[in-house]
Specification:
mainly alpha; two-stranded parallel ribbon; 5 helices; 2 strands; globular
Length: 116
Amino acid sequence: MEGVQSNDWTVESFSQSDYIVILNPNVYIRDYRIFKRFIKSRTGIEPWNYKQSMRNLIKMMVKWNHGYRLDELITQTDLYHNKRYIVKNINEIIKIIQEQKGTELLDVFSGQEQEI
């Protein structure tokens, strides 16, 4: 599962998953990525699926990003704490998989770009 979904319907997904990875990079890195995506969308470099506006940018940064409630997601996944990992970047995810399953699963992440 990918995204910021944290609803009742996600509980079934948690129970069926091998890993629950909560990607939690630094808030300022997330701000940078949101702003970069906004600029690329507004300039036509990347397509967008909703109207990009300054109001939306501020909403994404303030409400969604700075209002992100990691503690609620941790509480929601407490039942599955044995397979829950909170990481800052893809390198930490790769390390977890290497330790748990060996290098054969790393093909999933080959070619992934590491952003700051």
